Amino acid sequence: MSKLASKPITHIDDIDAELERLGASATGLVQDEAVKRQQQLGPNALEEVSVSAWRRFAHFFWGPIPWMIELAAILSLVVGSYVDLGIILVLLLTNAVVGFWEESHADKTVAALKNTLAPIAQVRRSGVWQRIPARDLVPGDNVRFHLGNIVPADVLLLTVEGVSIDQSALTGESLPVTKEVGDIAFAGSVVKHGDAEGVVTAIGAGTFFGA
What we know:
Layout: H1 15-22, H2 31-41, H3 53-58, H4 64-79, H5 82-114, E1 120-125, E2 128-133, E3 142-145, E4 154-166, H6 168-171, E5 177-178, E6 184-185, E7 190-202
Antiparallel strand pairs: 1-2, 1-3, 3-7, 4-5, 4-6, 4-7
Helix pairs in contact: 4-5
């Protein structure tokens, strides 16, 4: 999924085909295969991109629409229409300030959401259930979670016992959503009731949260 605005996949009908695509098994991945996949795909984490405040602010003066406004400002200066020039510059600066403020607010919201991502996951490797850092998960891993757990990645649910999940931070739904076999549990959502097991379908930036 490339955009948050795009509709996420919430259910998979052909579970067997999806498990085959993921190379998943009933006993989980062997450790060597998991390490190989992590080396290929990277960690189950969102990349931190640091951009200075000045560069972010300058970004709002660069692009087709700012260029048109800036061209209008230059033409006003050339013809000596200083009142129009002042108005245009005020509009340009106001647009940049408002855009910068909105983007900063959105960045803070995303940062707060990232802090809710699961630090630990229960995963089955070589037939043995174990607790590992969630960042070490890879597609094809068998995972399980219970009441109060944070879903550590996008997971195709294979067994469910009265599961409802709060995914309001991602989808805006006001109430927890009941999940069934074949449904996708999104990374960052919170289990409000029941227990579930499933297979990781996406990690990091590839998850709906990451998009």
